[in-house]
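Issue: ligand-bound run for flavin-adenine dinucleotide - logging full I/O for the record.

Environment: standard queue, default settings, no custom constraints.

Inputs:
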Amino acid sequence: MKTKPPVVVIGGGHAGVEAAAAAARMGCDVVLLTLDPDSLVRLSCNPAIGGIGKGHLVREIDALGGVMGLAADLGGIHFRVLNSSRGSAVQGPRAQQDYDRYPGIVRGILSQYPNLEIVAGEAGSLSIENGRVVGVQTCNGQNYPCDAVVLTTGTFLRGRMYQGEQETEGGRVGETAAAEMSHSLVACGVRLDRFKTGTPPRLVAESIDTSQFEPQPGDESPVPFSFSHLASEFQPALPQTLTHLAKTGAAVHRIVRENLHRSPLYTGRIKSLGPRYCPSFEDKVVKFSDKPGHLLHLEPMGLEHPWVYVNGLSTSLPPEAQTELVASIEGLERAQIARFGYAVEYDYVPPTQLTNALEVRALPGLFLAGQICGTTGYEEAAGLGLIAGVNAALSAMGKGPWIPDRLQSYLGVMVTDLTTTGVLEPYRMFTSRAEMRLSLSADTADARLTSLGESLGLVPRSQAERSERRWAQLNDTLALLECGALLRGPRSNTPADRIRKGEAGDDYLAHIPLTSFDKRTVLSLVQYRGYLEREQRETARLRDLERVRVPEEFAFELVPGLSHEVRQRLCEVRPTSLSQAARIPGINPASLTVLAAAIVKQRRAI
Ligand code: FAD
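Outputs:
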């Protein structure tokens, strides 16, 4: 009898690595099969991790023992908390990464997993027995029998790259596409669709006179991602660097407009949709034509890397137009392009075909994560990877799934959004997607998730203990601030009251005896206490709705009183609770009442 059920993860990107590491932490033997092990966790686009919503995901991954936060702390060369002047719910830790070092750091972390093997190869098809996935076959005939598979192919499935009129096959510049797996999925009854994404040109660092631009230093006191690094004592492992701010103007926009007839986005050669919140530069010029200029961030790709990433200039115009465009940006007149920007179109699986555990309904034993589920971004991919890895491990062990709770985590928000609502464009995380965003601030991720991670076997006792100590210390401090024992003042006006009245200054921060929290968070927790309490009451109400479970084999198609469209949507999504049903577009309160009555009636009949 096998002591460790095997899991195969296909794809060594951000989703694949987190999936493999999670399944390995839970005790499974894992094979990570990837096209090119040298391109493990390549930062395909922007060399940065985190941001608003995305930084929240990184903290949650870390709270569950994942890789990304730890690696980003070690590879960071420019740390900045975005939105730092606003409440903690919307503050997003972000760190520019050293493009060359980041993969090595991740590889170093993975080398500590003795039961995780990285293998080179292209997965071509899935082996199916009795309707269940039982293995993976590579294009060169290798066979990997297993109990569960996680598929994380990023932008590689039938990937096509575009640069002006030029069109080539590939998942990423310099890397081949993977077509076989698309055919295998379709043959198994999985529906595919196409999305696109794009990337800006990279410039030769030496050819840029940075004195022409406004420098953007990182935070004076860098804030780490990982809860294993004490906030007040954190020192980045690498020297820190500057980014610079540039701006486009009328001349640049004119060049874009003159070349639109050569842009694959505007000639109709790219038909699929890209991320609306990360638009191509062509789109910015056309859709926001009233704007005289757009900001660009010049971000070094590493301490010794010879290139600079031009954040905000994603384009698939032909190379000549890109050269002209860059030369017309003030301060970049002499800049040389090291690599031209391009767009890539690829297959993804519309995620309403997945359960909340990220398992393909038509193919039990197959879990999906990352860009293949219709998302965009490293952090979204890594978060989904962790969830899929856990569920693949649970499935291989013959256990029930773990469904992340939407009211407890952004991971839960992302999964339910994807599987319930589906996607019309590549999905990226925003704090506005969460109903309970005050309760889901990045700083509270370990309080929300680490003990759960321990019960799943993802987190060792030592990490759970560290989190418990951290929160005990914080709660003591909050209590002292509330009662006036700390930073004494008149009884009627406790330090907490003064914080809430906006009278707290740096003197308060200096007196707060915490090392494991960013002190701004403490102020924020005090300041927003009333709102947090209100949100907790609302959470309790939503949980009541969540408790109304839909029986597993419930026949949505037979519920009288529902319209044909509503029945169809319910059959497609198969919500597991009334609250999930409530989030399906087109399900109005009246349909929900009918559904609730039908569930109760069926229960009585059993
Ligand atoms: P990837 O990181 O792409 O990894 C996929 C992995 O699967 C690779 O290691 C590949 O080798 C492997 N693989 C594929 N097929 C097979 C197979 N059949 N067998 C074995 N291995 C296989 N994100 C943003 O947030 N904003 C952006 O603006 C943005 N722009 C982008 C522009 C470009 C050109 C590209 C390529 C990506 C861009 N991204 C952007 C997306 C970001 O890179 C991805 O969201 C993220 O990397 C997805 O992670 P993943 O793990 O799903 O896939």
